Amino acid sequence: MSMFSNKKFASYTVIFMILGVLYMFFYSGLQNDHLNILTPFLAENYGWSNLQITNPVTFGSVFVIIFYLIIGAAFVKFGVRVIMVPCTIVLGLACMGIGIAGENYTLYAISLFLVRVLVVPLQMGGFMLAGNWFIKYRGRVMGIITAGSPLFSVVGISVLTFLASSIGIKQGYLVIGVIVLVVAAATQFLLKDTPEDAGLYPDGEDSAPKSEASGAAQTITVKQLLSEGRAWQLIISYGILQFIIVAMMAFMAVRYNSLTPADNQGPPLFVKALPYLSAGAIAGIPMSFVLGLIDDKLGSIKASLVLNILYLFAVIPLAIMPVGGQPALMIIWAFGVACMTGGIPTMHPCITSYVYGRHLYQAANKWIMTIQAIPMAFAVAFMAGMHDAGKLTLAYYILLGLLVVSFITLLTMMKVPDANAADRDYKTKA
Asked: What is the CA radius of gyration of the chain?
C-alpha cells in the first residue's frame, strides 16, 4: 500500500514535504552557510574582525548544547507545533534584526545569536514530525525534505551574494524573515503533530504499526540511555559527522579566499567557486533521496556508511586544493558538499529512529543531540583557531582522520536491530 493511496494522508504528506524542504533550507542556511556571505560583507563594510562577526554564532552554539535538551523535552511533554511555531516566529524576527542592525553591533549580535539558536526547533521539529508520520517511508520522505539543505547552496548563497554586491544584505534578511514567518503560520494551521491526531495511522496504513503492538516502553531515562553501547556508538559516529559539517560549511569562503593568488586581479576565489557549488549541489541533491531509499531498503547502518564515504568528496578536495583553485577538485567538492548537507539531516533522525523506534525517538534524541552539540559548538572556533595559526590545511586532514573514526564506529553497529523492523520494507531483513 502506497502512502498516497489514502487521500487524506496524501494531502498531509504533500504539505509536510513542502514545509519540510523549507525547514531544512532555512536550518542549513541560517545555522552556518549564510556566514560565508555575511562575514566578508561585514568585515569589508564595518571593519569588524572575523571573531567579532562569528562570536554570536559560537556563543549560540554553546547555548544550543543545553537548548537541544530543553526543546527535546518540551516536544515530548507538550507536542511539536506548540513549541516549534513560537520559536519559528522569533527566528523570523531575528532575521529581520540582522537586516536592520547596520553598525549596531549589539542588535546584530543578539539577532545572530537568536538565529543560531532558533534554527534548532526548526530542525528537531521537522525530524520529529517525519518520525511521527512515517515508518516504512521514513527514509525517502526525509530524503526529499532534506534536499532543502543543499538547495541553500544552489539558491540561497547565490541570492545573498547578489544582494550583498548590489542592493545590500539588509533587504535579503528582511525577505528571509518574512518567509520564515509564513512558514510558521503554515506549520500551525496546515499540519498535525501525529497522524493519530488527524484520525490516521503512520504511512497511511489502515491499522496501527505492528512493531508498536507489544506495549514497548514509551520513555527512556538518561541513565538508561547512557548505559547503552548503542547510544554511544550513535553519539560518537554522528557527533563526528555533525562536527565536520559545521566546520566545513562555516569556512568554505575563508578556505577558498586563503587560496586566492597574491597577484589576483579579479574576484576572490570563493566567488569563482560559486558556479561549481551550484552545479555540484544540483548533482548531489538527489543523493538525499538515494540515501533515504538505501535506509528504507537496507537499513540505517548501511546508509550511514555510504554517507560517511560521501563526506570524503567534500573534505579531500579542500585539503589538497592548490592556490588558485582547480576545476575538477571544485566540482568534486561541490558534489560532496551537497551529499553532506542533504545526507546528515536525512540520516541522523533515520538512524535514531532505527535504533530507538518511533515513540522513543525524541526521548532518546534530546540527550543524543545535546551530547553531540558539545563538540559541535566549537567547530567554528576550531577552524578559526587553525586559520589564525596558519594551519588551515592541517585542519582538513584532522577532519579526514575523524571520518575514519566515525566509519569504524558505524561498522561496530552492524548488528544493532531496527526497532520498527516489523513495519519496514527491507529487501533483506536486518
From this structure: 21
Work out the mean pLDDT of the chain and round it to a whole number: 89
pLDDT of residue 405: 98
pLDDT at 429: 46
Instruction: Compute CA 44 distance to the chain's CA centroid, rounded to the nearest angstrom.
Output: 29
Per-residue pLDDT at 214 exceeds 70: no
Quick check: helix, strand or coil at residue 220? coil
Helix segments in 251-321, DSSP class H: 252-258, 269-284, 286-298, 300-320
* Helix, strand, coil shares, percent, the chain, to 5: 80, 0, 20
Are 343 and 307 in contact, with CB atoms under 8 Å apart?
yes
| CATH number corresponding to 7-194+216-423 | 1.20.1250.20
**Amino acid present at 27:** Y
Range among 55-59, 100-104, 183-187, 390-394 rated most confident = 183-187
For residue 287, what are the CA distances in angstroms to 303, 312, 338? Answer: 11, 14, 8
pLDDT digits (tens, 9 = 90+) for 130-188: 999 999 999 999 999 988 887 876 777 777 777 767 767 778 899 899 999 999 999 99
CA distance 132 to 17: 14
Residue type, 207: S
Taking residue 75's Cβ as centre, other Cβ atoms within 10 Å add up to 25
Q: Tell me whether residue 223 is exposed, middle or buried, using C-beta atoms within 10 angstroms of its C-beta: 0 to 12, 13 to 18, 19 or more.
A: exposed
Alpha helices in 321-391 (DSSP H): 327-376, 379-388
Distances (CA, A) of 392 to 158, 373, 382: 25, 23, 10
Q: How far apart are CA 370 and CA 238, in angstroms?
A: 12
Q: Is the separation of the CB atoms in 89 and 181 below 8 Å?
A: yes
pLDDT per position as a tens digit, 378-389: 898 899 899 989
Query: From CA 297, how far away is CA 401, in angstroms rounded?
Result: 30
- C-alpha–C-alpha distance, residues 212 and 216, integer Å: 7
d(CA 31, CA 95): 12
CA distance 272 to 268: 7
**161 close to 37: Cβ distance less than 8 angstroms:** yes
Domain ranges of the chain: 7-194+216-423
141-145, 156-160, 221-225, 323-327: which range is least confident on average? Answer: 156-160
